[in-house]
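Revision sheet: structure tokens.
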Amino acid sequence: MAARAGGCESLNSPSRGGRARRTVIFSADDFGSSEAVNGAVALAHRQGLLRSASLMAAGPQVEAAVRLARELPGLCLGVHLTLIKGRAVSPPAKIPHLVDSQGHFGDCPVAVGWRYFFQPRLLPEIRRELAAQIEAVLRLGLHPWHLNSHLNLHMHPRIFPLVVDLAREYDIPAVRLVREDWRTTLALAPDHPFPKLAQGLIFALLCRRARRQAQAAGLFSNDQLFGLLNEGRMTETYLLDLIPRLKAGVTEIYSHPGLYADPEMPAYRRQQELTALLSPQLKEALAAAAVEVSDFARLSRRMRAL
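Predicted:
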């Protein structure tokens, strides 16, 4: 039951007032990675703007995350596919070239990315593991509505076609596209300009082909995204400044909220990101700017109905 081809472009028609609709999806990554993240996701959904969360099938606290998800029927769940800095679902014997003897992937993004690109023999194992992660979520009785990945590795040119194929196979209607306006991000957060510029241009290039593949497969996807170039620092101040700059179409804003700081990732301002998702001022700013808050489930259903 694939969605109609054409991506989300058909959702961007002008409203009755003549202005193009602006829609935002607030989502949280790493659901299931820790108690702090799980608690923050639940709180931000119950009391704040969070509508979507991406579940790590092999996360250390995935069982607790699943229990919370069952208590939050309005939370739109996705699968946070993991091929780096994490543990596999499959036994090491089934994917011996992807993981070590303990079932862990590599940690260096550059090394892992080049390895996946120049060793096509890994692709069958990659597909097998990604399918196993999706099936692990399905066996828990949960319905995933969208696919993305840890460190956005699903945008890898060797991996994205596999993700599209699996989305169709498992009837998952949406996939994240990682296209961030680096000019906007640098205007709001001008630190480290050259790495942000480089990363923004690389993902923009990857997104061109990926968007065509997603549209050809009839998958829903976001038009823009924020959370990549200012990762871990999607604070209230940043988001309040961002809202007036949002373009027409669907923008995903993803963050990594937590109830408390993460000692393994000290640069992430997890508590501040949670505060932003709970912010009354941010809700008021969205309403004043006539920005709709939605999720991948509602928007993919809307696209199918067109």
